[in-house]
Design a protein that fits this description.
Layout (H helix, E strand, L loop, with lengths): L15 H21 L2 H9 L3 H4 L1 H23 L2 H17 L1 H7 L2 H28 L6 H9 L2 H16 L8 H10 L1 H34 L16 H9 L2 H32 L3 H25 L5 H21 L2 H15 L2 H10 L6 H10 L3 H15 L9 H4 L2 H20 L4
Helix pairs in contact: 1-7, 1-9, 4-5, 4-7, 4-18, 4-19, 5-7, 5-11, 6-7, 6-11, 7-8, 7-18, 8-14, 8-17, 9-11, 9-14, 10-11, 13-14, 13-16, 13-17, 13-18, 13-19, 13-21, 14-16, 15-16, 15-17, 15-21
């Protein structure tokens, strides 16, 4: 008889409790992602740097994923999921604690190192947790199970956004960039005092986050997490599996699609503040409020899309939502005022399904090979490493359309390209696999 339970594994065990425990980690890395996105604009104002320089926050943050994804996958294949989670939580907490000396030193490079160490930990957590969730039940419901677990990621994201809005952005010194430049030229000591105070405000929530993550580390040490049994067990070497993956057209396309998806997600959520500031004259704190609205829409859409996956093919939903995302991006570029901002916010409704769906499509039927294959999909988070700096360069330099389109609006051509790639991937999957 076909196993239809969402949490009953191939070994007949029920994985509901470990599913709940591991799903809690999804909120933890969602918090880290979205308390960090607004810091790009904050560091720009505090340290008087360019959009491109401040976007190096994202380069360092998502660079940790690129650097650690493959080592993390090799580690969990050599040991087990629980040890991978513990290493991830350990690095995560250490990175958070590094914000204190970085703030004291008033050194931007030190903050970048802290972000990098944090996300080396997040790479371990995501490389471990996503395939672990996929394995906690029948393969037929794996994508739906991962979508359900991923639905708790934006809950952490919303919390991170709220902390960034109320406890960081709203508490920063109200001196504008022009005011700070004037102080730099006339009273550098006063400017340094303001900068030190602002950097301490940024460091405080990260210190608290480090303590929370440390508590999770202790909880997981004493928790019993089962070894799941995959439908397919592989004894091949890492090198042999890597060669197989490189020959797997579906997997390679999935990794590329994931890179473009993560890139568009981080660009949309990072530069909504610059869009609201430049186009509508909003404060950073008020602009972050609209970012939270976007995340609320994202959360709601994730649960709705998880339900729809019971009735529609994942590839069809993915294609439809990518087209919708592209249409809203066009509205962001070409429509002025609040309608343009509303279009930017609406993009989040279209993004909610994408990450876990692409992930599930890529790892379908891989069994134990998913442990190593997941590294490529976490490596694809590097799309969030490279694309935001490219968009920041466009914001700094794009003046091609003069008074017709601002450089901020022109910069959203990059998210538009990303949605076109994702739509093409979804259509290709639909043609190749009638069950996906």
């Amino acid at each position: 008889m076909k196993n239809t339970s969402l949490f009953s594994g191939n070994d007949g065990k029920n994985y509901l409790f470990p599913f709940i425990l591991v799903t809690s980690l999804f909120a933890l890395w969602g918090f880290a992602n979205d308390i960090t996105n607004p810091m790009v604009a904050a560091f720009k104002n505090i340290l008087l740097i360019t959009n491109f320089e401040s976007s190096l926050v994202q380069f360092a943050f998502y660079g940790g994923y690129c650097f650690m994804a493959i080592p993390a996958a090799i580690f969990i294949r050599r040991f087990n999921y629980k040890k991978g989670i513990l290493v991830g939580l350990g690095l995560y907490s250490i990175g958070c604690f590094l914000f204190v000396p970085a703030g004291n030193a008033m050194a931007f490079w030190a903050f970048l190192i802290a972000y990098f160490v944090m996300t080396c930990g997040l790479a371990f957590l995501e490389t471990t947790s996503n395939p672990y969730i996929l394995s906690m039940g029948p393969e037929e419901s794996a994508t739906r199970r991962l979508n359900f677990a991923q639905a708790f990621n934006p809950i952490g994201s919303l919390t991170g956004m709220l902390i960034a809005k109320e406890f960081i952005l709203a508490r920063l010194n109200e001196a504008t960039e022009a005011d700070r430049i004037a102080l730099r030229d006339t009273n550098s000591e006063a400017l340094s005092a303001i900068q030190q105070s602002d950097l301490d405000i940024i460091s405080g929530p990260y210190l608290m986050l480090g303590l929370v993550v440390l508590c999770f580390f202790i909880i997981f040490i004493f928790s019993r997490l089962p070894q799941t049994v995959s439908a397919t067990v592989s004894s091949a070497s890492n090198g042999a599996i890597a060669k197989q993956l490189l020959k797997n057209g579906r997997y390679i396309r999935s990794v590329l699609a994931q890179a473009f998806y993560v890139g568009v997600q981080i660009m949309v959520w990072t530069f909504i503040i610059q869009y609201a500031e430049t186009e509508l004259g909003m404060s950073k704190s008020d602009a972050q409020g609209y970012n939270m609205v976007a995340m609320g829409i994202f959360v709601s859409s994730r649960f709705i899309c998880t339900f729809l996956l019971k009735y529609f093919k994942s590839s069809a939903l993915l294609t439809t939502l990518a087209i919708g995302g592209g249409i809203f991006t066009l509205g962001t570029i070409f429509i002025q005022g609040m309608i343009g901002l509303y279009s930017l916010i609406a993009i989040s409704a279209c993004m909610s399904l994408m990450f876990p769906t692409i992930y599930g499509i890529a790892l379908k039927g891989m069994g134990e090979e998913a442990k190593l294959a997941s590294a490529g999909l976490i490596l694809a988070i590097g799309g969030g490493c490279f694309m935001p700096p490219l968009q920041a360069l466009l914001i700094d330099k794009a003046v091609w359309f003069g008074d017709v389109l601002s450089s901020v609006r022109v910069s959203f051509v990059l998210p538009l390209i990303c949605f076109i790639v994702i739509a093409a991937f979804g259509r290709w999957v639909g043609k190749q696999d009638s069950s996906a």
